[in-house]
Amino acid sequence: MRKHLIFLFLLAALSATAKSGKPQAVLLHSCFMMSGKNPYVETFLMVRGSSVEYRKNESGNYQASIEVILTLSENGVIRFADKYNLLSPETQDSLVENFNFIDQQRIPVPNGQYSLGIRIKDLHADGEAIEAEVPVSVNFAPDSVSLSDIQLIERYEKAEKPGPLYKGGYTLVQKLGDFYPVEEDRLAFYAEVYRSLEKLGENQKYLLSWHIDDRKSGKRIEEYSGFRRFTTAMVNSALAEIDISRLPSGEYWLQLEVRDQQNVVQESKKVNFTRYNPQQITSLENLVTVVTEGSFAENYKNPDSLAEHIRCLSPISSPMERTFAGNLLKEKNLENMKQYFLTFWKNRDDAEPSKAWENYYLEVRKVQNSFGTSIKRGYSTDRGRVYLQYGPPDNRTVSLREPSAYPYEIWHYYKMKNQTNRRFVFYNPDLVTNDFTLLHSDALGEPQNDQWMFFIMKRDTQTNDIDAEISDPHFGSQLRENFLTPR
Question: What's the pLDDT band for 13 if we cut at 50, 70, 90?
Fold first, then answer.
């Protein structure tokens, strides 16, 4: 089953300017049963904190207020409607917006085909309301064992008592989407089994098993499977994780099955997901079977030109790919380079590897024009690497003549793979070249430097204190403001 997501504002194409007055949010839904008897639709709404306005409340703190209208209709007839205000967490600084806030609702409804509608509006802004609608199918068979929908989980923790996001003894935060980038090496999921006591008998054992199937071929990948034993009950809940660190890029199904003591499948459910995890090439033997004839790689006849194309792949390569490519370039075997080049792009887009390369090379040329120097190719610079790895920033603040400061840039990404609200700080201490060094970032896996502000202001501020972090304010400096409030 493909889960429906409502992107109330396209997060991947946010404006690089000030807030539009329209909140940015994502809505997911799943179907469950209360006590194994009464169906309900569970909604999970995430609002991006940086997309809304904040005002002081009665306690003197800043808070956002979002008007939410949820409806569930059947054949045009509204079966459920609710209107409420969703408040953000309180903050003492209206500029601190690096959080999202969430809301969960549970709507009891009988089996049927529905339309889930939502309307949200920022009550502190003048922008228009955002509306969206998605179909919902509630279908629990009354005379057999049933499974809930499968929820993909972003994070969870054991809960001592019930709360807003409580299910099965845990506080569960859903994953916003079904895409697993290379940085995410585990897939966590939650599901519930209903009526096993009624249908299989008292004190009977059964299995809830799971496995991953390739959506293209339909084949089961045995390495990614597991099970859990249960004793029959009206409701059994399962929270489990699968290690997907070695799962190649592709589109997959996660399938769950309820099997009785005779290994007969009583019920099954599945949910789709996409994995991006470029396969690691570790030896020339792995390239022997790669046929370049008839492919776009066959057109490369000059080993020097192809070597340069392989070098520019470094920003989007894994560590092992970079190591292998480095060894390959030392030998400069044209056929081996063709095989590697073709394999690299087929791993990223098996259907159209040449188009994937053309799109990437267009960005490489942009990077060369913007960030290249007399001694460095654009993709070898820190700004070029970040641009090619994560895409263009949503905001780019450039300061070249600020008093007391070295030239610097601050890049801000609203959404960056599986991270949100991330910043990169570059500076140019030599004052001559176009090569800006990455000094600090709050993104995972990137260099972090608590003294970054001091280093930028070090142009006329010298100290021997290795623990210095932030220099005293300087006249005319906008460094702190540019970092906290990108524009």
Answer: very low
Mean pLDDT computed over 470-479:
55
What kind and span of H or E run contains 420? Answer: strand 419-427
Res 6 pLDDT > 60: no
Q: Which CATH architecture has domain 1-140?
A: Sandwich (2.60)
Nearest CA among 29, 28, 25, 106 for reference residue 64: 25
Which token pair is 165?
């996001």
Closest CA to 311 of 324, 300, 302, 299: 324
Long-range contacts at 333-337 (CB < 8 A, ≥ 24 apart): 334/300, 334/301, 334/303, 334/306, 335/292, 336/284, 336/287, 337/300, 337/303, 337/306, 337/307, 337/310
Which residue would you say has higher pLDDT here, 470 or 71?
A: 71
Alpha-carbon span 136 to 112, nearest angstrom: 8
Cα 459 to Cα 202, 359, 408, 429, 440, distances in angstroms: 77, 40, 12, 8, 17
The domain 147-277 having CATH identifier 2.60.40.2550: the answer here is yes
Which residues are CB-contacts of 171 (< 8 A; sequence separation ≥ 6)? 156, 157, 158, 159, 163, 165
The SS3 call for residue 125 is coil
pLDDT band at residue 95 under the 50/70/90 scheme:
low
The two tokens of residue 372 are 């290249």
Which residue type does 34 have? M
Q: What backbone torsions phi and psi does residue 118 show, to the nearest 5 degrees?
A: -140, 145
Are 225 and 210 in contact by the 8 Å Cβ rule? The answer is yes
Average pLDDT over residues 477-484: 74
Structure tokens given for 367: 């990077």
pLDDT at 288 over 80: no
pLDDT-derived band at 352 (thresholds 50, 70, 90) equals very high
Cβ contact 124:235 at 8 Å: no
Cα 471 to Cα 487: distance, rounded to the nearest angstrom: 23
Same topology between domain 1-140 and domain 147-277: yes
Beta-carbon contacts of residue 398 (< 8 Å; ≥ 6 apart):
409
Please state the domain extents for the chain. 1-140, 147-277, 284-383, 393-484
Measured between alpha carbons, how far is 215 from 76 in angstroms, rounded to an integer? Answer: 34
The Cα–Cα gap between 89 and 99 comes to 9
Residue 278 pLDDT:
65
Is the predicted pLDDT of residue 135 greater than 70, yes or no? yes
DSSP type of residue 478: -
Beta-carbon contacts of 173 under 8 Å, excluding residues fewer than 6 positions away, are 102, 153, 154, 155, 156, 165
Could you give the 3-state DSSP secondary structure of residue 305?
helix
Mean pLDDT across 292-312: 94
pTM: 0.58
1 CA to centre of own chain: 21
